[in-house]
């Protein structure tokens, strides 16, 4: 029987952690770079912060073509090496424009590898455990994010931002090399006619595949299939979900500490704003830790109640948490809603990474997942950008509550494939 936890999942989780670590350290690195070079231009500051996200958009866009045409493993290796090495080099440069350049390259690797790993783990899973396995994969994001935050909490003040950035980037690079030991997807091997290799992996990992695996297709045919009669509603629905959840995640979590400081008097949390000035890293640790049970709740529920119910419910509850935060007037309300926001938002992410790859056949699985992620990255760029224009604390959180409610509607267009074989 196919195990819930195996070599493929373990190695993919290490690579997933590398992505989170290589993105989670950026805020601390940028803060040090801005202070060291005395950068005051708001446009340049914005480019420093958004460069990784621009790169992730590009990476997600091209990952589908590469993953479906040269294979999951080769594509994962290309993106892993790109983000790992670029992340290290970015810390060593002095010129901010070179930093932006290398962070864009790192972002291409970061955005490109995620859809490939999600598809690979899905393709190595039995229907009965696929949801649990992909949710476990996504849960490693919080573990990876904890690496740079914990190191910053313990040592940033001692070692300085550049040494901190170098250490955390090297850790991310080492973790990313786990992809070298992955196996190729047997579904992909069957799609290109390498039946003997596929059969060896099927027997080794005790997985079951449909007798009818679609053959590899070219990009134009793949795009046509994404918008075919059978799949266009699914594609649009997924794009809505990815755009809204990514906009909400980056819009809220990047600005959250800053919002608490700047809007403290408005919401009556002057004491909390003062606390964040001296205990900001502790606060970030608490919020990040709240993500972990959110992930594992998805691990427990995604195969039991189904992807659509879990994803839709968690998106609605994320929206409700944001709405409560808009009008919270006590510390207890504020902390409870903040923890709930983190819990349900990251639980929804775990469900989404399970839900997305299984909506498409093997021939366009990485393409469909990658392009949905690309639309998400557009939302991820737009979310942080528009926050300063939204005005009051209430306006900001009501906006993002509404965004998550809209995202929940996108779930209505997809197929429920919990405990079922993926489509071909």
From TrEMBL:
Residue ranges of every copy of the Major facilitator superfamily (MFS) profile domain listed in the record: 8-419
Coiled coil: none
Localization in the cell: Membrane
Gene Ontology MF terms in the entry: transmembrane transporter activity
Species of provenance: Staphylothermus marinus (strain ATCC 43588 / DSM 3639 / JCM 9404 / F1)
Transmembrane segments: 44-66, 78-98, 104-122, 134-155, 161-182, 236-256, 283-303, 310-328, 334-354, 393-412
CDD domains attached to this UniProt entry: MFS_SV2_like
The keyword Amino-acid biosynthesis is annotated on this UniProt entry: no
PANTHER family: SYNAPTIC VESICLE GLYCOPROTEIN 2
Primary location: membrane
GO cellular component: membrane
SUPFAM superfamilies named in the record: MFS general substrate transporter (SSF103473)
Nucleotide-binding in keyword set: no
Membrane topology: Multi-pass membrane protein
Protein name: Major facilitator superfamily MFS_1
Keyword field: Membrane, Transmembrane, Transmembrane helix, Transport
